[in-house]
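> @MW can you paste both from yesterday?
MW: sure, first one:
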Amino acid sequence: MTHARRGVASGLEVIAAVAALAACASNAPSGEKAAARGPAGQPAPALTYDWHALLVMPFGTLLKDVPFALGEVLVFHDSADQAGGREDRDCYRLRGTAPPRFFARAVDEYSLCFSSDRLNRIEASVSLPSESASTQFAAACAEWQRAGASGAAAPDRCAGRYGSTEFDARLTASAAPAVSSVLIDSAQSLDQPRE
């Protein structure tokens, strides 16, 4: 009888162990969460708000010296841009090259803009999860403001300057929130291109 009980107890222990393993396997992340973590054993990429990642090349780079294939983007200019002498701006998207990551996410829209054939503006947009968009944007703005000269700061807008680079970011509040960022080389005079 002792032998029979031992067999039943061992059988129950095996069943409990298999059930525990099955529960662990069913709780494994799938889809987007699994992809965010990357290969097994590697943690998810660190969330960073550093807008420097958007600078794939230095401001002032000549259009002919860009090391990426580009596709021209149709850009509509407003009257303020034309009054400021910026009507010659041409914008391009990367072709065949992945855009940089921002907020630990792939950038949805990314344009490199040239004035007088020199890079002087970068425009980027990245989607954020609706449940954390406001919190992430506020944290990013606080980080940007600490790192450089502060400018406008509001729940949906953050602007300032870091060296000769001006930044202006806006959070669109909708069902699919996104951060739209513009980086401008304020040291480059639009009237006098760099030599």
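MW: second:
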Amino acid sequence: MSDYVRITTSLSAIIAAAQQIGAAAEQFSSDVERLIGDIEALEGDDKLGTDHFGNGFRDNAYHKLVDAGDGGSVQVNQAGKEAARGGGKGGAHLADGATTAMVRYGMADAENESGIDSV
């Protein structure tokens, strides 16, 4: 069963907004990758240290194993990186979905125009 949807702006405006979201998601992904590179440059023993405090932080916090969501586990530092990467992927998915939905909506509207006009 479908529901009636009233769109109060043009399809092109919605598609343009979706494209802006997609561009922002691309920029976010690029920024995240750059920042992850910066983080990875600081992850070595020379930065974290190999004394009691450095080893304790690395073993009990930074490299602590957490649930990966798939039945496995992953180090918390890697989980954080993957979560950050997910933001860009989510934005791109949203943009693609909104664009596809509006194109399909427009096609269905055009195909059924005569039936819609008779209502």
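> thanks! The first helix runs from residue 11 to 41.
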